[in-house]
Amino acid sequence: MNVLRGIKWPYALIALLAVAAVAVGALRPQLVTAVTSSKKKPSATDKIKQDPPPTLFTDDEIAAIGKKADDQRKKADALFVRWKKTHGAARDDKAFAVWAAQQVPAPPAAAPRTAELHQDQQLAKARTAAGKKAATWLELHGKKDIWKLYLHDQRELVPAQQGNAEKAELKAALKLAKTISDQVAAKDKQPAPYVLDPSLRPDKHIEPGAKGPYSYPSRHATLSATAVTYLSALSPHRAADYDWMRAEVLYSRLYMAGHVTSDIAAGTLLGDLIGDYELTVNRR
User: 253 with 216: CB under 8 angstroms?
Assistant: First the structure.
């Protein structure tokens, strides 16, 4: 399977370029240092060239969480009709942020959330070195880099002015997604699975009695859904590729106990709403 499904040439060569960079670095480390330090802030493309994707999870592994994310799409569209009926296509980020946060369901009660925690615990028992490597890469690049790379690929096919506008729009959408997601998480105060059970992520070094980080809704899910909704409107023929990558990102959050399933569902619903909003105010 192409681990960055849908990324076209020359970006499909990112992994090969990165391997070559490693080989050069082994021979001439000072050259690699000089090149990578010349940019103050690497682009998403640069980051993935320097850290190419490992083999990701199988389609069978990600199918269930992908279906759950898909189920939020119709819910979000139906909810957004209410916003649009009142506000039309006018941009009002402040009012929308308040409204969107109110559409996120309350977190599940203690018993259902505990059952979801048990699912994470069972998944943790079956972790492999390859799975951890995939999840770590997806955790690092799954919020923004992957989606910016997909858009970068598509921008080569449109006029520069349009491409620059789309880049700015995606950036604004992801920023809004982070803001609203963090606001809801701070309000609902649902501890992440690895806070409830520190043995799930010993690398996090959770202090006894800690309450956070909070995980409802999932920020990764919110940003991913926002990006997928936006990118799919630009390139409907690639929507399946975007959905696939989103499922990879979401599964990684369960695999490494960053979230439980309800965190993912809530984040996806919120992200879909934000994507609908951005497309509407930008008249797409």
Answer: no
